[in-house]
């Protein structure tokens, strides 16, 4: 804005910033740990909630993926989709409850938050399954723990995107 004023030839004055101490600055002391927790508490709680739910998700994905080999045989794509979906249904319910009540402490309408959360969860499910399948195909990997590693990397990237969407859209008051 100042550059535009200068370009247009509009006059402006510089005003010095005054530092005002009320009551000898008794109420404005910086407390590094407490103040940092206020600032970063939401992301720490989100990381903890996500970590717990990731363990649930990865554990169930691995279990379903390995147990489903006899059911789906060579249809690796279907097996990965079923394993991803089954694991995500359980982990997303736990995650929604934790994020709503503990992480974002949202007062938003439960139904509206749930619909938005599951729109996001469904999108993440599709992206996760497609990326795991794509990486598996590119690397020539079949059922096993390496696909769990691919899923871990994929879901870690999705974590960062999900935080912003949940903070700004799902649980925003």
Describe this structure in words.
The chain has 173 residues and is mainly alpha-helical. It has one domain. The longest helix is centred in the N-terminal third of the chain and has 36 residues. The chain starts with a helix and ends with a helix.
Q: Gap between N and C termini, in Å? A: 31 Å
Order of helices and strands: HHHHHH
Strands, count? 0
Radius of gyration: 24 Å
Q: How would you sum up the global shape?
A: elongated
Number of helices: 6
Strand content bin: under 5%
**Structural domain count:** 1
- Residue share in helix: over 70%
Which regions have little confidence, pLDDT < 50, spanning 5+ residues? none
Largest beta sheet, briefly? none
Question: Could you report the average pLDDT, rounded to the nearest whole number?
Answer: 89
Q: Which structural class do you get from the secondary structure elements?
A: mainly alpha
Brief summary:
By secondary structure, this protein is mainly α. The chain contains six helices and no strands. Helix 2 (32-67) crosses helix 6 (145-170).
List the defining traits of the structure above:
173 residues, mainly alpha, 6 helices
Question: How would the blueprint of this fold be written?
Answer:
Layout: H1 2-8, H2 32-67, H3 69-72, H4 76-103, H5 110-139, H6 145-170
